[in-house]
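Case study B.
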Amino acid sequence: MESVCSKLAGRNGAHVFLGKRRPSLVDALRGARCLALGLLFCSCSSAPPIPLDPSPALESALPIDYTVVFVIHGDGGYGFHDSEGREYKADVEVLAGAKQVAERNSQAEVFIFHEKRRTHTLLFFPRSDGEFFYYRSGRLIAQESYWRDHGESRFDPVVDLFDRFYVAGQPRRARFFLYFGHEIPEVGGKGYDASYRNWTFTVHDLADGLSRITGDSIKFDLVALSSCFGGTPHTISALTPQARYIIASPGNLHLSYLDVQPFETLDVGLRAGDVSDFAKDVARQSYVRLTTELQTEITVAVYDVDRVQGFVSSVDSIYDYSLTAEEGKAPGGLVRCDCADDSAYLRPAMSEGVEVFYRPARFGRSAAKLDHSGWECLQLRKP
Amino acid sequence: MLRRIGMYLAAVALVMAFGGRAQAQDKLKNHFSDVANKVKAMEDPSAKREVLNESLNKMQSALSTVQGSPLVSKNDKEGIAQFKVTLQDKQDELAGLNGYAGVPDAQLNDFADYIVQDMEQAETVTISLVALLLIILIAVLIL
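Model:
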């Protein structure tokens, strides 16, 4: 459709605006009609996929050692400001970082899904609200728009695109899944997408999506949740079947906190082949950068999924009881807290398998809180 | 009645202008960021305090007005009540009330950033578009 649009624009431009004769009213009206048609076609179109590179070099390209999947949610309030007052859109910033990761890894295939706000052209003609990029060996192989509401579940379009481009039959050294967005609800989940207020999205939907991407028998080596309140027993438990290690923030951390720069050189970061060390490096680097930028609390944690199962299963029922109360709007309401600050969740071995990078907020009630367990829980609001 | 109609029409106009809740949220974030920039541009600590205090007071007034409006739902009122508690906490800290020691002069710029960042990472999902627009209308454009 791009060609149709460019042809229309080109024809109009040459005839009406760039021609040597003076444009008449008829020309102007014709141009306006063509422009409207052009907009209509563009608004209804999906950008066609960039065709696979036919060069034989690609076929003999370096082996694919890594698969990286980025899902970047941008259908919500993702604006933020730096300390100079400059305004940014978190999803747009992350998208640029993800593309750099894709371009700089010669032995990786990188899938990028950008979930955008639904917009319309001329108020009526919907534009596609998803943008997909597929890179292999550092080169952009495909780019296309998609509709997020096509399919029965939220991840249908993502899984379809993944299956279309995934290079099967090659063993991977590591698989990564990185999610960027607001806090993923643990129950309910209605209203997560600004464009689709009736859709629901919970950590269980995410876990289901992950299992459909890799298949039930394969885990992601590292799942990163660049969102608020990902470090809870319930969320880690939900993602347990699909992840070996998880990076998440148990706190209310600033948008797009995760630093993707370490993913730009996976061969270097994973030279020793240790995903655990790599995950800690990613978390540490993100933490260090954030300490120079933020006045609010910073908590980034790495969870060794197998090793945290003891704690998770020991508090599962208590946490789920609180979640049920939250869903039913318990009188007085619930607030989040460090699990270590509530005796109901406190366990001697709760730090087993968790690496925490923490700095309290510079202001507020918790400014004097010296450490964090790495786990966030729910408790009744004190009167 | 006229006031109510006027507020409603203004809210509708703003919906048209901003095109969605995400944009309304961003508008509110811009407001807090503008205040922080203003504070950081000042030299005199007492002037900084005055700007911060005035901004927080205006926002509290706007929230109270919207909270009492028949245009907003019960859920909105609860969301606004939580927002007010958060802002009150910052007013207390600024003034050194309710157990706070007060913000030292040398940290007022950082405190202004803290307000912006805390606002930006807080989910305002419980506040609907209409309520958000009314808050913006009153706090940013009228008061």
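The interface with chain B takes residues 75-81, 83, 85, 87, 117, 182-183, 191, 194-195, 228, 252-255, 294-296, 361-365 of chain A (CB under 8 Å). The remaining cases will be described in the next quarterly update.
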